[in-house]
Amino acid sequence: MAKSLTPSLAGLILSFWLSGCVTTGLPQRQEIDLEKAVHTHVQLGLRYLQGGDNRDAARHHFNKALELGPKDPQAHLGLAVLYQADGELAVAESHFKKALRYGDSFSMAHTNYGAFLYQEGRYREALAQFEKAASDLTYNRRSYALTNYGRAAMQLGMTEEAEKAYTRALALDGNLPQALLDLAELKFDTGAYAQAKHYLDRYSAKNRQIPQSLWLGIRIEKIFGNRDKERSHALALKNLYPYSAETLKYQQMMDNDG
Question: What percentage of the chain has pLDDT greater than the value 70?
């Protein structure tokens, strides 16, 4: 559910709109009030966007922010994410580009635009966006940008670059689930089975099992001849995710072994 407005926040919005109707006063004060109003609409848009069940309200506030400040990068980013969710990809990309045009050092926009490009299969363009975000040493989600860089690099066959990115991401956040799991997969694919098990064990210690982790666990335990653990992973995969692609791969493996 979308979060309801607190009385104090609702009062702030009202005061901004009231102040916008006043024509007297110092221009500097009006400019400050305008900036606050833009910020408030952006924050409300983000609140509704994160709630997930009221896109129209989120869209309304982002558009109001842009009426007051047409070059606000956060409002453009918010609309980009909304239109991406709506399947309006051309409009979404337009807003992503505006977010970056008006805020070139906006690392969150680089990350989100990179994710958009990745989903569209435009891996080299995505790589460039993730690289820009990861190069920002002040970005508080830099570890995620590095992980995404690694994923894009893997899609482009840049295995060494991907491994470096995952390792750097884990240096920033040693429990980053996607980096641990992807690095385990990478190590398995290159035949470094002991290292693959090491990273998968680190993942499994603090994260729920998903089809990818269970399928990798089956293959690793099969390599090491641990039949009990292999069966345990297989049973969990079939029970929890009976219609997953990984379950189908396991069935095919068993048919081939048989």
Answer: 87
